[in-house]
Design goal:
single chain, four-stranded antiparallel beta sheet, alpha+beta, 4 strands
C-alpha cells in the first residue's frame, strides 16, 4: 500500500500541510502544498485548458509531485502537490 486518503482541513493557497504517519512502527513525514493557478495568468493565445494544465504541471518545481487536481472554476484551478525525497 503506497497511498492512503485522509481528509485535510481547508488549506488556502501557498500553505503547507505536514502529515506524520506511523505504519508498523515506522514513522513517515509528508508535506503537501496547495497551489491555485489563475487561468488568465497561464493561458497562452488559443491554448486549451488541458494544454495549459499540462504546462503548469510540467514546469512546476520538480521537488514536488502532483497529488490531485481540484475542481476548476472559470477563474482558477487548485492543484495539490506532495514534497518528494
Amino acid at each position: 500500500m503506497d497511498n492512503i486518503t485522509i481528509q485535510l482541513p481547508a488549506i488556502r493557497a501557498h500553505q503547507f500541510a505536514d502529515v506524520n504517519v506511523t505504519v508498523n512502527g515506522e514513522k513517515k513525514h509528508y508535506q503537501f502544498r496547495v497551489e491555485i493557478f489563475k487561468w488568465d495568468e497561464w493561458k497562452r493565445h488559443s491554448e486549451n485548458r488541458a494544454s495549459t494544465l499540462r504546462r503548469i504541471i510540467q514546469n512546476y518545481d520538480k521537488q514536488w509531485q502532483l497529488v490531485e487536481i481540484g475542481g476548476a472554476s472559470e477563474e482558477y484551478i487548485p492543484i495539490t502537490f506532495r514534497k518528494t525525497g
